[in-house]
Amino acid sequence: MKKLILALCVGLAACTQMSASGEKQDSSASSGEASQKARAFTDLAGAYFTRGQYKVALDELRKAIQADPHFGPAYNIYGMVYMELAEDRLAEENFRKAIDLDRDDSEAHNNFGWFLCTRGRYDEGQEQFAAALRNPLYPRPEQALLNAGLCAEKQGDIALAEAKLTRTLKLQPDNANAILKLAGLQYRQGRFADAQRLLTRYGEVAQPSAESLWLSVRVERKLGDRAQEAAYGLQLRKHFPDSNEARLLTTGQYE
Questions:
Q1: What is the pLDDT of residues 64-113, one digit of tens each?
Q2: What's CA 190's distance to the chain center, in Å?
Q3: Rounded to two decimals, what is the model's pTM?
């Protein structure tokens, strides 16, 4: 549809040149105003989405599309909302619409890639992450790299997962999520000292989580430091008593 509209504009160029300059300015201003309205509504929708207010987000997105049916980022947020609502067909349709409108929309590629990965379509997901990273102007390549690493882990490709997470940390050394996930991979490979070093680094950039404390318990257990194992276990039971990790600790399910 976008190509068709561009072709029509080219075909109407002679008519535009014959129009009064004021009319051309009005048309341009009108188009710019529509895009601004669409962006404002889309930004609101994104804020509501992050709060889990999906119905309100959908209402704002409808306003965005009414203002400018060709505003790609609105379809990206549509895809994210429908993904959370488990409306997979609608999610995929909207992610594809966003990408059709702007092939360089790395955020849409990244989000679509994560959607595909969570649905078990790992290779397709990796293709979308790669597309996101091909854009040299993408301001957040570390996010696509991190998601590519997590996707590879889900797929069971530990080598690829480690490579992607390591690249993430080269771009963003203090990415807490990447540090923790890489530590988990190293634990699974029996590289307990490496995992311990990464967990120490994690503690320097982020607050303890149930996941990080549980991994620390198991790492120290493997390294034979019972005092540290007990200390991390105490923190886990104290700060996250209702977590699945605390339940695993209580029942002694270390693996």
A1: 999 999 999 999 999 999 999 999 999 999 999 999 999 999 999 999 99
A2: 29
A3: 0.82
Tokens of 108: 């849409």
Q: What tokens appear for 26 in the block? A: 């009005």
Q: pLDDT digits over 46-72, tens only?
A: 999 999 999 999 999 999 999 999 999
Single-letter amino acid code for the residue at 226: R
Neighbours of 245 (CB within 10 A): 19
pLDDT per residue as tens digits for the range 7-25: 222 232 333 333 334 444 4
Q: What CA–CA distance (Å, rounded) separates 50 from 237?
A: 29
Token pair in block for residue 74: 């609105």
Complete domains list, the chain, with CATH: 173-255 (1.25.40.10)
Which tokens in the block code for residue 136?
A: 């040299």
Instruction: Give CA 176 to chain center in angstroms.
Output: 15
- Measured distance CA(52)–CA(56) in Å, rounded: 9
Report the candidate in 165, 161, 200, 202 with the shortest Cα–Cα distance to residue 180: 202
Give the closest residue to 114 by CA, choosing from 103, 104, 129.
129
CA–CA gap between residue 75 and residue 46 (Å, rounded): 11
Note the residue count of the chain.
255
Please, are residues 108 and 95 in contact by the beta-carbon 8 Å criterion?
yes
CA triple 83-243-121, angle to 5 deg: 30
Q: Where are the alpha helices (DSSP H) in the chain?
A: 2-11, 13-18, 21-50, 54-67, 72-84, 88-101, 106-118, 122-133, 141-155, 158-171, 176-188, 192-205, 210-223, 226-239, 244-251
Question: Which residues fall within 8 angstroms of residue 99, CB to CB, at 6 or more apart?
Answer: 72, 105, 108, 109, 112
The CA-to-CA distance between both ends of the chain, in Å, stands at 53
